[in-house]
Amino acid sequence: MPQLVNSEVSFFERVYQIARQIPAGRVTSYGAIAKAIGAAKSARMVGYAMNASHAMPDVPAHRVVNRNGLLTGKHHFQGTSLMQQLLENEGIEVENNQIIHFKKHFWEPDIQR
């Protein structure tokens, strides 16, 4: 089967390709992923993709937060604090639903061309 060219891959799959690259112990934002896939004004759509990824164990949706380091997607995880627990298991401190030292933990995805 031939490899798909980036433009032939669905928006959600392009989001997942970036999300799968986020290293453990690091986070990125919806907007950074949107920018990386060439859809800079589509941060909300990245959020929809992350919400739809929960049945995909290879997509670390817990590592994607808003531009201020807030766990805005936490209500899409089972239980009230699963997203926070997953991040804390990777060494990321969270207080009041916000990542402590967000800039230190931020991972900038490569821009896809």
Written overview of the protein:
The chain is mainly alpha-helical and 113 residues long. It has five helices and four strands; from the N terminus they run αβααβαββα. Helix content is 34%, strand content 7%. The chain has a two-stranded parallel ribbon. It has a two-stranded antiparallel sheet with strand order 3-4. The chain is globular, with a radius of gyration of 14 Å.
Features:
34% helix, two-stranded parallel sheet, single chain, 113 residues, two-stranded antiparallel sheet, 5 helices
Which class do the helix and strand fractions yield? mainly alpha
Radius of gyration: 14 Å
Approximate shape:
globular
Low-pLDDT stretches are 1-5
What share of residues is helical? 25-40%
Separation of termini? 23 Å
Give the secondary structure arrangement, pairings included.
Blueprint: H1 11-19, E1 28-29, H2 30-36, H3 43-52, E2 64-65, H4 82-89, E3 94-95, E4 98-99, H5 102-105
Parallel strand pairs: 1-2
Antiparallel strand pairs: 3-4
Helix pairs in contact: 1-3, 2-3
Summarize it.
The protein has 113 residues and is mostly helical. It contains five helices and four strands; from the N terminus they run αβααβαββα. It has helices spanning 11-19, 30-36, 43-52, 82-89, 102-105; strands at residues 28-29, 64-65, 94-95, 98-99.
